[in-house]
Amino acid sequence: MRLPEEPDLPFQINIVPMIDVIFAILTFFIMSSLFLTRSTGLPVDLPTANTAQEQAPSQLTLTVDREGKLSLNNQPILVAELKLRLQALIGNQATLIVINADERVDHGKVIAVMDQLRQIPNVKMAIAAER
Questions:
Q1: Which of 20, 28, 67, 125 sits at a 20 to 30 Å CA gap from 59?
Q2: For the chain, domain boundaries
Q3: Strands of 123-127's sheet, edge to edge?
């Protein structure tokens, strides 16, 4: 006795598991790329200003942290040596120096830094603020 033959079903590819795998890989790459970004500044709480404007990319960044310590492009520096070091760095070029001063730092410390910067020719100052 012969069994009846089963009808041939058309071949199908189930793509749902493939889509799941692709989304898992995509999620992995997105999450890993978020951890690759690095912050280049020192952590300070900037004051806010309604009239703050974007500045052209600056050549130098001067940071005054919460304790009043100075950093020039993330390198520690003293107020007394600021003028000489900047003159050596910029020469006769017109330079924009952005001052990132923590909002809790002593006002006199920021004025002392600005006073040193004003004595250098061809230096423009900008104070960083968040909108």
A1: 67
A2: 60-127
A3: 75-77, 70-72, 60-64, 95-101, 123-127
